[in-house]
Write a structure and sequence with these properties.
With 199 residues, the protein is α+β, with helices and mostly antiparallel strands. It has helices at 32-38, 66-75, 83-92, 95-103, 107-110, 118-128, 148-161, 166-179, 185-198; strands spanning 4-12, 16-21, 24-29, 44-54, 57-63.
Amino acid sequence: MIATLSGVIDSVSGESCIINVNGVGYQVFMPLTALESLSRENGTVKIYTHYHQREDGVSLYGFLSEHDKAIFEKIITVSGIGPKTALTILGVLSAERFLEAINNEDHRVLTSVSGVGLKTAQRLILELKGKLARVITTNKDGKAAPALGSVINDAVDALVALGYPQKEAVAAVEAVYNGDNTLTTPELVRKSLKNLGRK
């Protein structure tokens, strides 16, 4: 089983990237926010992978942290939820925001994801609530990462106060946070503004 890949990103498409590992190119399907982050990387990167086998072939799904991978693997245990839907969820919601929605039974947040209707949201909550307690957010040093509300939400609020639309602010902040969850709120705001300025 392939658990991680370390190499250089050859190319990034709308749903996957090609990572060159010692001359071998692996296609890895990833959440949109992770792909956006990788598209700006020039050096060696490490991707945590989930090897998925079906009757019609095998696929690799990748994540920038073990935490995101763990959440993905929990999501695909839910009846009727496949890897592509799980990737879509994590491409719109950060793993922390998803956990928050499950714990708070927040259907509104879950149904904000394209392809996730009310019945699917209810099934996610029913089958996952209480089963995600061991999935703990950690930063690169192995220490507990700051709570979602104290970092991401504050950064999003700051961008909205500067005039950016809520949806655009959330996407920008979560893309930066998924690349480095050790950042403080001011650092998140500064890097998100830099990325927004490139558009």
